[in-house]
Give the backbone structure.
Amino acid sequence: METYETSATVEERGQLHVEGVPFPPGTKVEVTISPQERPPDEFAAAWTQLCAALDHAHNVEPVGALRREELYDRDDVH
């Protein structure tokens, strides 16, 4: 089966117009409508912002050597 994918914007009163389909007039077609997923460029921008936030949030300054008691012998605080 030949398929054709495109996108369109729902207009007032729920109207939808799709122009330029590659089928001759009178051809019966199946129509499935779903909301468009987030565009790839919008996802990429959000991912870049997340990575930048994570880079800013982590500690980049060295803390130096830790003594054994700092690692193992801490008081259990609840």
About this structure: The chain has one domain: 12-71. The mean pLDDT is 80.
